[in-house]
Amino acid sequence: MTGPAPTRRPGRQNAQALQRLYREELPRVRTAALAWRNGLGALLAGVLGFSLVKGRADISGLASPWAVLVGVLLLASLLAGAYAAMRLLRAAHGLPEVVERAVVRSRIAADHDEAVRAQRALRDGIGAFAACSALLIAAVAVTWYGPAKEAQRVRVVVTGETVCGTVVRVGAGTLVLKTPHGERTIDLNAVSGLSPADACPPA
User: Fold this and answer.
1) Which residues contact 115 (CB under 8 A, 6 or more apart)?
2) Which pTM was predicted?
3) 46 or 41: whose pLDDT is higher?
4) Is 89 left (phi over 0), alpha (psi -120 to 50) or beta?
5) 117: Cα within 13 Å, side-chain hemisphere
6) Alpha-carbon gap, residue 33 to 39, rounded angstroms
7) Contact criterion met (CB below 8 Å) for 112 and 29
8) How far apart are CA 48 and CA 69, in angstroms?
């Protein structure tokens, strides 16, 4: 007669389960990184599409300090986006490397270390992507809602009178200025002096 089949010890079962988890760890992290990369790429496309919604077309109409701010935000967004892309690619595909024979370790230990590095890269990439999106949205918001650049003021001397204001339009021998007192139409043939002005007297 044969006795009952020996049962595996709980410790051995736990060790095998742990090894199985370690073996599946790196592929699981790689799969998650690929999903995050694809999802964040689609989200970035949506953010870029939002930024193209009708608004101020460029920064040429912004006041000087705000135009510089938009440039800084866009540059920071570009750098954050590039860093995010590099870290997400690192998490999804790893780095090419050659292991020297003198430092060869077990495959499970090497995969575990790589999984830890890939997970760290994935978290860095997600954080950098969030920063990239926030900076891009901030740049678009400043472009849309920042204060407009003030129009150039001119001082016109006509028939002994000095008129100061911003140019509205020029045509048909006339110059229309927006002055503190309202619009003023000036006959260009009567102009005896024309010069830029930093400011106009208040109304």
Assistant:
1) 25, 26, 28, 29
2) 0.62
3) 41
4) alpha
5) 11
6) 10
7) no
8) 19
